[in-house]
Design a protein that fits this description.
single chain, Jelly Rolls, 150 residues, 5-stranded antiparallel sheet, 2 helices, 4-stranded antiparallel sheet, alpha+beta
């Protein structure tokens, strides 16, 4: 089992590396989320606990936690956080908004100078409590998130 997990981790890392050569890496300037010190964040708001419908663990070990994230058309996730920095590989996405714990919009994809194209890979620092709403009526948001444990 341990060998299979290691092979899966290597496969994911190779996939992200190869995809990086095949596409433009998105700048974090477009995804300007406020991050805070995650040391005191409530465990109950961990993405897998607070929003299990949208976050599925597909691999976890002492180094990484790999999540498959899906948000259906018109769906909003429960409020949750990501305490570890991450590589995010967007497989599919359309218009969406992200709100902070107070309901304030911290990102609106409709305000980008040019629409984002998938597939796309970005780096994200730890993310404080937030909730994404998929504004599309037809397209799911699908991504793989590799959280790097520190």
């Amino acid at each position: 089992m341990k060998t299979i997990n290691i092979q899966l981790a290597i496969l994911f890392l190779l996939t992200f590396t190869i995809s990086g050569f095949c596409q433009k890496l998105a700048s974090n300037d477009y995804y300007n989320y406020k991050s805070m010190d995650p040391v005191e964040w409530a465990l109950a708001l961990d993405a897998v606990i607070a929003a299990p419908k949208n976050h599925k663990i597909i691999l976890e070990n002492d180094t990484v936690r790999v999540l498959e994230v899906t948000i259906a058309p018109g769906e909003s996730e429960n409020l949750h956080h990501h305490k570890w920095p991450s590589v995010i590989y967007f497989q599919e996405a359309d218009e969406f908004i992200d709100k902070d714990v107070d309901g304030k919009i911290i990102f609106d994809s409709r305000k980008l100078k040019a629409p984002s194209k998938t597939p796309m890979t970005i780096w994200k620092d730890s993310e404080a409590a937030h909730s994404i709403s998929n504004l599309s009526n037809t397209k799911s948001i699908k991504l793989i998130r590799v959280e790097v444990k520190q």
